[in-house]
Description:
mainly alpha, 66% helix
Amino acid sequence: MDDVISLVEHLDRVPTSWARNMAARLNRFVSGETDDVAAALDLKTARGKRGWRSASLVAARDAAIREAAETFFPALKPSQQAKELAAALLRYQASAWCIDQRQQNCPYKASDLHAALWLILTRVDFALSAERIRKILVTS
């Protein structure tokens, strides 16, 4: 708790409005106004909306999908990249992923397609359809 109090005191001295807002939010927790840090920081998610942790993981997965398509299928159109990547994800998820998902670190070399698939599935643990991957590839 001392670290949180020190952080609030530090943020109070930072001249930006963001820092002052964060200090005020943390003060709600420190003062006992709420015992829920997520509520104090306004991290609670409205019904039907994706939480910030989930949104962050999905964004990381989408970035990994874009990078994999660009790296391993550069000559193909987005729809073809999506089909190839979706098929590769399904094959990997049905086979090596059963063992690889327990690994803390990627068991493959960075230049290997399996490394990209491992990264994608460690962010969100399910394979996507080719159509969903295509939508990810054409939107940034």
